[in-house]
Amino acid sequence: MVDGGGAILSEPSVRLLTAGGGEHGLGFELAAHRYMGALADTGAYGHTGFTGTSLVIDPASRAVVVLLTNRVHPSRHGPSVHPVRAAVGDIVAGALH
Known about the structure:
Elements: E1 2-3, E2 6-7, H1 11-17, E3 20-21, E4 24-25, E5 29-30, H2 33-36, E6 45-48, E7 54-58, E8 63-67, H3 82-96
Antiparallel strand pairs: 1-2, 3-4, 5-6, 6-7, 7-8
């Protein structure tokens, strides 16, 4: 993971966080179509938050998608934001690939 030429995490750290089987690495979810949309097809990894936030990293294009929503306002019983997250992933993947 790189920010303007300076490493935030070392390559071994990223490999460790994304190692695993299926949709779960040690620190990130791997290729989770339910909220990454088409970005999952490129080997993306990411993480979601209860309030509706999500982070998706596409190593193929070096794109980072941060989605900030508030699904708990005005109530914690609102619908899932996964469809919105997946739609954003589809739009970003379409623009990149």
